[in-house]
Here is the input.
Amino acid sequence: MKQADLKQVAVIGTGTMGAGIALCFALAGRSVRLYDVSQAQLGTGLERIADKAALFVAEGVHSQAEVDAARPRIETTTDLTEALQGADLVNEAAPEDLGLKQELFTQMEGLVRDDTILASNTSGLSISAIASACKLPARVVGLHWFNPPELVPLVEVIKGEHTSDQVAQTLRGLIASMGKAPVVVNKDLPGFVG
Here is the structure.
């Protein structure tokens, strides 16, 4: 899959990271489905997004028109199947629990196309260990945004043991096109670059 093909993004988790990541993709013109397990968590995530967007406008980072155009690009759902329907890229931002992430990646892999890229926002877990639960580990990659993701330009693109070069370079190009500073991490080591 090429960078230009990454139009529909699913973001899994609406915490500080997930909300900020969703806003970044929406501001970059991507359609986003934001998923969490409850309507209450989705509501909190949307509040976070609104607060971040308002700050951007107040500080002159983005215009009101840009923020107004981005907001409708974000849909929310508590249905994982619906969240992943048609996704070209999934960026998971669930709690830092290896078992949870492996279970989630196994489930997600069964709900997306074979060419959908599955990325984890993990800040310390092994991408190779997460990918070990998948049948197609070549498409599993780390996409680690720094907190707060909407402000910090650095984004690590972390290759696991089986991550394809094409997947890593496609995400590197996507992140650069969003005005961020991607760093490809070629070795899956604790702590990555940051």
Summary: Strands lie at 8-12, 31-35, 74-77, 89-92, 117-120, 140-145, 154-159, 181-185. The chain has a mean pLDDT of 95. The CA atoms of residues 26 and 72 lie 8 Å apart. The longest helix spans residues 39-59.
